[in-house]
Amino acid sequence: MNVPERIDETTQRTRRRYDRDAPVYHMMEHLAETRAFRHWRSRLWALVGGEKILEVGVGTGKNMPYYPANARITAIDLSPGMLQRARTRAERLGCAADLCEMDIQDLGFPADSFDAAVSTFVFCSVPDPVLGLREIRRVLRPGGRLYMLEHVLSHRPVLRQLMDLLNPLVVRIGGANINRETRRNLEIAGFTVTQAEELWSDIFWLFVAEA
Prior knowledge:
The protein has 211 residues and is an alpha/beta fold. 39% of the residues lie in helices and 24% in strands. It has one domain (9-210): Vaccinia Virus protein VP39 (Rossmann fold). Strands 3-2-1-4-5-7-6 form a 7-stranded mixed beta sheet, with helices on both faces. The two termini are 24 Å apart.
């Protein structure tokens, strides 16, 4: 399944950014991945249950080492450049995930298709995060859960103001928004947040939300 050809310019721009960054993406996140992200990924995936699991925003495949052995994984990404590297990693790891080019905001799956969904540092970049979350909720079975790692806007007044101020520059450079309020977006999209674990400061969080 492929991403629709007619998508809005903001989404096209996001895809171009991540195609551009795909060759160096591993290097860009190496320090954060080594010091924190890989440990948080392991903790998150240890919570994930279900037979049919959707990973949204697979990127270069950094979550693949943590996929449950007996689950059927479908993994999507907007960027062909990222998917190319994810396929290479899947071959190297012997990972049998079904990899698809697709827009989170317009998922090409029927309702109630998956038992669980996983997202790691993705909704900072989705142009319309509430639309993307509503799509995930649509394709989850009733009671299915979304498991997320995400960085969010701080509630500390000075830091919050600074993050808002710097956000346009950060988006232009790397494509990720640093001032998203993901818990609120989950609730707007109709999810019930059942777990919210602060991982670092009040910026990096692990969320579990039920459809």
